[in-house]
Amino acid sequence: MRPLLFAANWKMHVGPRDAREYLAIFRHAYAPLPERQVWFFPPAVSLEAVVEGLTHREDLLAGAQDIHWEPKGAYTGAISGPLAAQAGARAVLIGHSERRHVFGETDAETGKKVDAALKAELLPVLCVGETLAQREAGETVAVVTRQLAAALENESTALDKVTIAYEPVWAIGTGRNATPKDAAQVHAEIRQWLKARKAGTTRILYGGSVNLKNAADLLAEAELDGVLVGGASLEPAGWAELVRTAAA
Ligand code: 13P
User: For residue 224, what are the CA distances in angstroms to 54, 86, 125, 215, 239?
Assistant: First the structure.
């Protein structure tokens, strides 16, 4: 069995009280399995509640959904790497397509955030992916490698701490997911990019409308080291079942 990472991005759902209830159900429904890790990315207000709910479970970890690149300062509404770490986060999503496309985050900003995450000893999960128009124009690989380069070019020594999530924008929250072969093809390109920088252990997750029905087929592709899941991670029993049953 190869190690698999199941990451739950709760986006703007699950407050602290709901998070406590969620984790009580999840922990009961999901006992640790060898070579499987589950990472939770709650909204910042729920981080501490999630961290408390994960105690004594080495297979579970909490992360932030975003950080600012500065460690502190007058940035109303933002949280920094050190603040997330103090709340118990050990990882952070960077450059999620909703950050890029809804909040206008740039490639250059993702680079500064990866840097800030590593300084705060958070494991960055860098999200990359093309829009439908870019895919149809045959630009998928160009877009993804541009996003990788912008965020990671300065981090060649730390690539083993980074996880990549390939999330085609057209597949997020749409019920339309890439076929396992489509996903594997892009993952192979990402792996090439990483290998050229001597990063042999960086994990590559797939995200975009992953659910209980399609997770096993996706993970049957050896190129996929795990999944990053939005909607299907919001219900604890269903998420536990997905993590438990998805084929290795
Ligand atoms: P959905 O699983 O809801 O499509 O969201 C995917 C995603 O954006 C995870 O980060």
Answer: 25, 31, 15, 11, 18
**Angle, alpha carbons 159-90-147 (nearest 5°):** 40
pLDDT tens-digit readout, 97-124:
999 999 999 999 999 999 999 999 999 9
- pLDDT of 152-187, one tens digit each? 988 777 999 999 999 999 998 888 888 999 999 999
Query: Is residue 52 among the annotated active site residues?
Result: no
CB 168 near ligand 1, within 6 Å = no
**Phi-psi bin for 42: left (phi > 0), alpha (psi -120 to 50), beta?**
beta
Q: Which residue of the set 68, 96, 109, 155 is catalytic?
A: 96
DSSP letters spanning 185-220: HHHHHHHHHHHTTT--S-EEEEESS--TTTHHHHHT
pTM of the entire predicted model: 0.96
Q: Which residues of 92-106 are buried (b: 16+ CB within 10 A; e: fewer)?
A: bbbbbbbbbeeeebe
Specify whether 167 is catalytic. Answer: yes
Cβ of 172 below 6 Å from ligand 1: yes
Amino acid at 221: E
For 163: left if phi > 0, alpha if psi spans -120 to 50, otherwise beta; the answer is beta
Which is catalytic among the residues 109, 167, 187, 223? 167
Task: Specify the DSSP element, H or E, that contains 60.
Answer: strand 60-64
